[in-house]
Write a structure and sequence with these properties.
Strand content: 25-35%
Number of helices: 3
Order of helices and strands: EHEEHEH
Low-confidence stretches: none
Strand order of the largest sheet: 2-3-1-4
Largest sheet: 4 strands, antiparallel
Shape: elongated
């Protein structure tokens, strides 16, 4: 399951509206707001769903940008050792 995090940038006075919109997105957890923006952590079912969510974050009203700061896809792609063990069976 891919896990990603973003800083969602918007004007400070619009943060309450953006937070409300973010709360409605499945798989999204909100962290504290900082000087750079709102912290968002997301879990999705696939890499394609992560890419779609990132686009959706950027398309939310009042959002200036959604900057990815962490992406973990290690369980989406098999490791070299896992691939070697399954190919020798």
């Amino acid at each position: 399951m891919p896990v990603s995090s973003y800083i969602v940038r918007c004007r400070a006075e619009l943060r309450p509206r953006v937070r409300e919109a973010l709360r409605r997105l499945p798989g999204v957890t909100l962290g504290p707001a900082g000087a750079a923006g709102l912290t968002v952590v997301a879990e999705t079912d696939s890499l394609a769903a992560t890419e779609a969510l990132e686009a959706r974050l950027r398309d939310l009203p009042h959002v200036r940008d959604a900057v990815p700061v962490y992406l973990n896809f290690e369980d989406v792609f098999p490791t070299a050792s896992a691939a070697a063990s399954t190919s020798s069976d």
